[in-house]
Amino acid sequence: MRVLIISDVHANIQALDACIEAFPAYDIVWNLGDVVGYGANPNEAIARCRQLGNIFVRGNHDKACSGVSDLAGFNPVAAMAAIWTKKNLTPENLEWLKVLPQGPITPDIELNVACVHGSPLDEDQYLINVHEATAPLLHPAAQCTFFGHTHLQGGFFKQEEVHAIRPAFRDPKLPQRVELKLRPEGTYLINPGSIGQPRDGDPRAGFALYDTDESLVTFYRMPYDIAGAQKKILEAGLPPRLAERLADGR
Ligand code: ZN
Known about the structure:
This protein is an alpha/beta fold and 250 residues long. The chain is built from 8 helices and 11 strands. It has one domain (2-248): Metallo-dependent phosphatases (Purple Acid Phosphatase, chain A, domain 2), CATH 3.60.21. It has a 6-stranded mixed β-sheet. Helix 3 crosses helix 5 and helix 7 (226-235) runs antiparallel to helix 8. The structure holds zinc ion (ZN). Zinc ion (ZN) is lined by residues 8, 10, 34, 59, 61, 149, 151.
């Protein structure tokens, strides 16, 4: 089975549409949350993501933008965007966001995998470095856990020690992919990257394909119309910083 794994779309349909056109052949989609927040097209992002599939975990922005959680822990720019999003969501989409499931979820009982937004131990925790990834890898919910939240493509694996995984991409202008063969004796935390707001210094949209038969994860980076997404953010009256950071990939 080929599983397309996407995360952190963040209402950026320019990025999502470029990815949809470029998606490799897949059988099912797992969405790791933060469909909305930051970007200017939350309703369109929800519609497209729901067309792609029905397996989701909720992200912290999905919760904040639908009123499931308050804005504690949100910086002023993120909070402004959450308030704007809540105001601009259709009632139906607001209800849909409210009932998204909390991770970890087991998307397929035949597979030894789990999906979360932040960490298997805490849905809102950021797993940025090896230190933070160690506790969830010591007591893994599954051999392979897919997570988002940090907007950093790659992840971690444990085989005696914990190591970081960072796909080595070269040219930030072209579509690219990097393969990672999963070792049967390893335990993994895999982040497909963010479609709508990458933060690893590479502004291209990120996603991943997990081939369960081959035990192979392929990371993708896809250029998209960044200027178009920026224009929408500014026209919507969202904080200009949210437009600027798309070009930096930070
Ligand atoms: Zn996010």
